[in-house]
Amino acid sequence: MACSSTDERKTREQARDAGRELSDDTKKAGHEIQKDAKELGREVKSAVQPDKLDNATLLARVKSRLAADAGLSTLTSVSVAVNGSVVTLTGTVANVDQKKAAASAASQVDGVSRVRNDLLVRP
Description:
Layout: H1 5-48, H2 55-68, E1 78-83, E2 86-93, H3 96-107, E3 114-121
Parallel strand pairs: 2-3
Antiparallel strand pairs: 1-2
């Protein structure tokens, strides 16, 4: 039995429409998988870091360490900011040794992954 050109055209259009629909569904599924994978990654990271400190606790520990270290207890012009596990030091110090010592002390605190040392030396 031979198909008419109208039947062939309808069949091609239906196949094309089905292909587009399948492509759209595949894209949606891919986006959902990416979203789920990102969320799972965040959950795993959180579970792997049970000792993750909140900003206030980490801030207190860094300030305490700066005050306790020899030569740093007199640093009254130094500010400490914490964002996650990143510590930022700002303000002024009397010399390069104090700048290095402050960064070193902050980096040795548990929970600190990075120290951004924006201290300025002003004798």
